[in-house]
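Dear colleagues,

As part of the handover before I leave the project, I'm documenting each prediction I ran so the next person doesn't have to rerun anything. This entry is a single chain, and its sequence is reproduced below.
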Amino acid sequence: MNDDNQTPIIIYQAAGQEIEVRLDVEQDTVWLTQRQMAELFGKDVRTVNEHLLNVYSECELERDSTIRKFRIVRREGAREVTRNIEHYNLDAIISVGYRVKSPQGIRFRQWSTRVLREHLTQGWTLSRQRFEENARELEAAMALVRKTAGSPTLDATSGRGLIDIVTRYAQTFLLLQRYDEGLLTEPRAQEGGQLPTVAEARTALASLKSELIAKGEATELFARERGDGLEALLGNLDQTIFGEPAYPSVEAKASHLLYFVIKNHPFADGNKRSAAYLFVDFLYRNDRLLNTRGEMVMNDVGLAALTLLIAESEPANKETMIRLIMNMLATPE
């Protein structure tokens, strides 16, 4: 049950009608009572109720997911009474609207879609602008700290060490916050990137396999190809669309290489380790293992954690995972 104060009320006006509509931006919908739907479609409440019963009995919609009770105050005779009234979301409203084939229903759907889009877009834009302003301020502060760290007047080893920790981890925290807020975007990237040939990839993996077997950490199944999975994967990464590379940057190629090897399982065993090795091999081939300050772009612990994160991620989160890897590889401005 929801209180009125938690759900904003907007007014729908058309052709002499004026109906209070509850807007729910979080669920991307609006809510109306049966009485309001009757007013909207120019029908009586019994007709609306009959259509709703049919909608649910025919399993067109699930009742529980399309109905919510809101506490409203209304006048009954000389009294003001507070009651919990069932409201129906936009899916239910549209279903009834199609069944009554009402021109008023078409106008309402157009209006509600526009209102939802405006609220969602404005909310996203304001949130994004506020976050990016804070991010720019933090990045500017970190640039100043890095400049201070390079000053010859800063002699104390402990002072330099502290500044190094602050600058390194502040960037990490900023990246994690962007991830949590759903605000990760593709960073500035380096165009190009040379992928290994299938033969080169096989040679690199064969070398890794020999080392692991010698240590007792792998069997003959490690990196054994299943069909033409590896060849197809590398071919897809090197493809063009209308004459332009499908993955035009070093960051894009590296991110997709790591993701696809983990998720597509081109090997009988050791897909995560093979993916991490091919990822590092690709960065080495393209002179990107180190950042502009001569530091490893990703240490072994970070790579292991990232590999496991990708392996456990849902396919629907693919683009987020790709942007996360690209941001971790991005060279600082």
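The longest strand covers residues 79-89. The chain has twelve helices and seven strands.

All the best with the project,
I.
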